[in-house]
Amino acid sequence: MAELNEKVVIQELKQQPKMQHESVSKEKIAYDEFCLVNLPMVTGKQYRCEWRKFLDITKKEEKWEEPDFLKYFRHLRMNQKLKGTTLWVRYVYLDGMYSRLVGSTLKQDFPRIKNLVKDYQKNETVRKAKVLTKDHIESFLAMDLPERYWLVRKAVVAIAFCGSLGMEAVRSILFENLDYREDGIFIDFKVVNKQKRAVECQVFVPFSKNFDVCFGNCVVSYVKAIENDLGVDLIQSGPLFKGTNGF
Q1: What is the pLDDT of residues 56-77, one digit of tens each?
Q2: pLDDT of residue 208
Q3: Is this prediction's pTM over 0.90?
Q4: 50 in Cβ contact with 106 (< 8 Å)
Q5: What gap in Å lies between CA 104 and CA 64, rounded to an integer?
């Protein structure tokens, strides 16, 4: 294949983001440059990887037809023993590449492919995460686990449970947000939602007479451990949880 000028190829692709099926060929398109322009930086690698696997199985670089995709998904099911849920992910990757190359979708051009994936998913048992109860949480907090690895996890569990928070919200808490009171720790902080807006959040982590399962004590023990490591009496600013283990 003759060398392609990268700048020229990218410019042509920007001007013609949707291309007709018959115009796709190795001589016309520099594959990597196409993906660079049309796919997100993070997920682009996954799309390219899946599409390359498809091309390797079908032995076709252009003018793909429904039997080609059916062959590929049957290969994934029969030879690689993939579950229906995993096949759906592969379907999304292929559909993303196909729509950008051809200007249409797999559902529009080849509806049998989606039906095939649906059939594979029938009668499959989807595993669901078990719901933790308060008893489960208290049993974990009562365990004698003084290591730093567990101190941070106990603090995270205590705050998340008391405030019904997800990890994104927990990571938004700062040291200056902690207000120590006689009956517990009041946490007033802001978290950015999906609409990129700062939302006020308030959590109360109570102290308990039962020291072994005291939610507030889990947070206090974690903070004291950090202060001891840093050799300071009081940390007044910065993220409460920083790094993989919080420290």
Answers
A1: 998 888 888 999 999 999 999 9
A2: 86
A3: no
A4: no
A5: 12
What are the tens digits of pLDDT across the range 199-223? 899 999 999 877 778 999 999 999 9
Residues 6+ apart with CB under 8 A from 142: 212, 213
The 10s digit of each residue's pLDDT in 156-191 is: 999 999 998 888 899 899 999 999 999 999 999 998
DSSP states of 167-214 as a string?
HHHHTT-BGGGEEE-SSEEEEEEEEE-TTS-EEEEEEEEE--SSGGG-
Count of CB atoms within 10 A of residue 49's CB?
11
- For 245, residues 6+ apart whose C-beta sits below 8 A from its C-beta are 148, 149, 152
Distance CA 50, CA 30 (A): 17
Residue 2: CA count within 13 A, CB half-sphere: 6
